[in-house]
Amino acid sequence: MLASGLLNIRDKIKLIALVTIIMVLALTLTACSKPTVDSPDTESYGKTIKPDHNVPEGDRN
User: CB-hemisphere CA count at 13 Å for 58?
Assistant: First the structure.
């Protein structure tokens, strides 16, 4: 627990301002970074999956 009696009001304001700046910086970096998952290939929509040629013809569904 932070001993509130040890910090005067000016120090509390500085601490709150520092935490706020760090939070805004973290959110900004997160929002502006590249997404982890790439968008799906729009040219593959509506196409069927080609069969795996390593599976014998009789075992294919």
Answer: 0
Q: Assess contact for 7 and 15: CB atoms under 8 A.
A: yes
| pLDDT digit string, tens, across residues 26-59 | 999 988 887 766 666 777 777 777 766 777 777 7
3-state SS of the chain is CCCCCCCCHHHHHHHHHHHHHHHHHHHHHHHHCCCCCCCCCHHHCCCCCCCCCCCCHHHCC
pTM above the 0.85 mark? no
* Token pair listed for 19: 């935490």
